[in-house]
Amino acid sequence: MKHTLRFLAGLLFTVGALRTAAAAELTEITVEDFHGAAYFENALEYPEVAKLPNRRARIRRVARDMGWPPARLAAAVDKVGSLGSDPVELAQKAIEEGFKGTMLEGRILQVLINADEPKHVIAYIRWRGSHKVDVVKEASTVAHVVHKQAPFISTASIAAIHPKAPANTKQTVWSAKIGHSSMARIQPSRIETYADRLYARLFENVDDKPIPY
Q: Strand, helix or coil at 67?
């Protein structure tokens, strides 16, 4: 992945992003913030951008390429840079920790984030299912945690395995995708009682295999 610690180092040191920005929280980083900061950092690899005399000139050049106002791009760069660590690594840890105290505590098997396309970051989550009647509740919990902990993620690709299957199995009993705006609609207080009625329709490409459990 391009968006590793090098991404943050470019923002903090090459760009000087923290000169004016107060420290942001990961939960404040939007899809646009991440996209703008990553686009800018990648643009610095091009000689026509890198050779410009100062940060202001580079911001203006890249903002023009993106069709953004320079102030908007500068704010995104500063905001992401102020995190103090790689946002993708922070997001992975935050999502893992976000399941504490939920119905899925201790059953999350994998959290991966693909930021190769900064405009559309994808989180991949696998968990051990408990019972078929609860799968939509569990999926809704996953989607809520992803959005709450790392709102710059555009899509969650999620999958449950059989309760008795080995953790490394590739066979799933239920899988789906859910987009950013749909994740934002899930209210944790309603999951237990209303998930099947309110939230089941938010999931796309649902593969509900006829495997009893």
A: coil
User: Does the predicted TM-score (pTM) go above 0.85?
Assistant: yes
Model confidence band, residue 45 (pLDDT cutoffs 50, 70, 90): very high
56 Rama class: left (phi>0) / alpha (psi -120 to 50) / beta: alpha
Q: What does the alpha-carbon distance between residue 142 and residue 111 come to, in Å, rounded to a whole number?
A: 11
Distance, in Å, from the CA atom of 158 to the CA atom of 174, rounded to the nearest integer, reads: 8
> What are 97's two structure tokens?
């920790």
Residue 114: strand pairing partners = 122
The strand ranges marked E within the chain are 108-114, 121-128, 153-161, 174-179, 204-208
**Crossing angle for the helix pair 135-149 and 87-98, to the nearest 10 degrees:** 140
Main-chain phi, psi angles of 64, to 5 degrees: -65, -40
